Amino acid sequence: MTETTSAETTAPEDDVPSSPGVSADITRILFRGRDSGNGAYSDFEVDIDFSGLRGQECVIKWSSYYPGANGRSDTDTGFSGQLSTGLLAHDDESHWNTFAVHNAQSGWMLHVFVYAPDGTLLDEQDGPTA
After folding, report:
1. Quick one: pLDDT band at residue 21, thresholds 50, 70, 90?
2. Taking residues 15-39, what's their average pLDDT?
3. Residue 58 near residue 117 (C-beta atoms within 8 A)
4. Domain-embedded: residue 109
5. Strand 109-115 versus strand 41-51 pairing type
6. What is the Cα–Cα distance from 104 to 80, expressed in whole angstroms?
7. Does residue 2 surpass a pLDDT of 60?
8. Which helix (H) or strand (E) holds 127?
9. Helical H runs in 12-112?
10. Are 22 and 52 in contact (CB under 8 A)?
């Protein structure tokens, strides 16, 4: 799954990329069920292990898509979003967030991206089908 990036998520070419000790690892994406406040949404939990980012803020983005079949490419559902981790308190930190994703038609899947403060993509992973 490829995300279309904007100036907000892409580091300028002359910026120094994140230091080698900086990392994020998506350890789990869990479907929590329909959102209790609005049935048009589903709740997902994403668990991420961060390293070397104390005092910095990362961005978690997601987009939903329909997986391609028989060699066809994936199709974006048009539903996506993002949230901030807030300032990370420790050099090595396990962090989790729950977010609501607008339900697409049957068969959609979720893809999650984690970006460093400078816009560098640190990790990405497919989540479960809702």
Report:
1. confident
2. 81
3. yes
4. yes
5. unpaired
6. 11
7. no
8. strand 121-129
9. none
10. yes
What domain range is 90 assigned to? 23-129
- Report the 10 Å Cβ neighbour count for 78: 10
Of 16-20, 48-52, 69-73, 84-88, where does mean pLDDT reach its minimum?
A: 16-20
Does the pLDDT of residue 45 top 50, yes or no? yes
Q: What is the CATH number of the domain that holds 95?
A: 2.60.40.10
Per-residue pLDDT tens over the stretch 62-84: 999 998 877 678 899 999 999 99
Residue 2: DSSP 8-state:
-
Is residue 112 within 8 Å of residue 93, measured between CB atoms? no
Q: How far is CA 43 from CA 33, 58, 106, in A?
A: 6, 20, 16
- Rounded to the nearest 5°, which phi and psi values hold at 98? -115, 135
Using alpha carbons, list the distances in angstroms from residue 34 to 48, 102, 108, 125. 22, 10, 14, 21
In a domain, 122, yes or no: yes
